[in-house]
Amino acid sequence: MIHTEQLTKVYPGTDFAAVDCLDLEVGTGEIFGLLGPNGAGKTTTAGMLTTRVIPTSGRALVGGVDVAAQPALAKQVSGIVSQQNTLDRQLNVWENLYFHGRLFGMGATTSRRIADELLEQFQLEKWAQASVYALSGGMAQRLMVARAIFHRPAVLFLDEPTAGLDPQSRLALWEVLGQLNRDGQTIMLTTHYMEEADRLCHRVAIMDHGKILALDTPAALKRGIGADTIVTVRAAADPEQLAAVLARDVAGVERARVADGAVQLDVSGGQRLVQQIVLAAERAGADILDLSITEPTLETVFITLTGRELRD
């Protein structure tokens, strides 16, 4: 449903590619996640796929339509929900849907019917005649999703769809997106929420510096870091020295690194880890203040691939 060949974007006045020779395939009926730190290129990628950004070179097709050669047609086969609230403040909730259908060439009767159906589907029917100013953040986001799928797009693009939402609204939107996908909707989303990508996405691509660093199912990406346990140790000792000691003396340690003043160990197949770590720390004269053990997460993969430094 999405196909790119060597897709590249170099912004004027810069000497680096925001997106660098991207080859990507997204299948019909798939929820595909695009993850990356600030400046990784994911927003530019989504911009090129939705015609907002003109590629410097390469090719992109959405629903079989070349987005650069036929941008008007590409917009017709795409549904877009941006981070910003783009609802028309001059229209009520129902009118935001109705006039979207009319804009896409639907007749009045058809637009009325679909608007009513979508308000019911997204549990917004009692707000039909209300001003969009009366909607909560979660309700406004549901309305924008409803509007985006009004014309039955081939692909629904979501840019940080749950940013700023409370946990209840986030869960409600996840349910909506899951049901849309079960009904056959292809979805591409960018997100900073690792739990969101893990829960929703069939496959995930992690980008940085305009390139894809890893692409697979969330489960396969987590297995790919080569560790089945993540141990975080805080101690009254120099963390760099402690990391070296634990990497040497604890069995099964694949990687040891310092993050936020703590030592993080990626461990594969380690036995009696707590005892090993405590004894090794004691021998090094380090008093352990806190120790936690977790399974690998997408956040672990993300940090391993992209690092921990802050991005502009």
Structural account:
The protein has 312 residues and is of the alpha/beta class. The protein folds into 2 domains: 2-222, 3-Layer(aba) Sandwich (Rossmann fold), CATH 3.40.50.300; 226-295, YebC, transcriptional regulation domain (Alpha-Beta Plaits, 2-Layer Sandwich), CATH 3.30.70.980. 36% of the residues lie in helices and 27% in strands. The protein has 11 helices and 14 strands. A 6-stranded mixed β-sheet has the order 6-7-8-3-9-10, sandwiched between helices. A 4-stranded antiparallel β-sheet has the order 2-1-4-5. Strands 12-13-11-14 form a 4-stranded antiparallel β-sheet, with helices on one face. The longest helix is centred in the middle third of the chain and has 16 residues, at 167-182. The radius of gyration is 23 Å and the shape is elongated. The two termini are 32 Å apart.
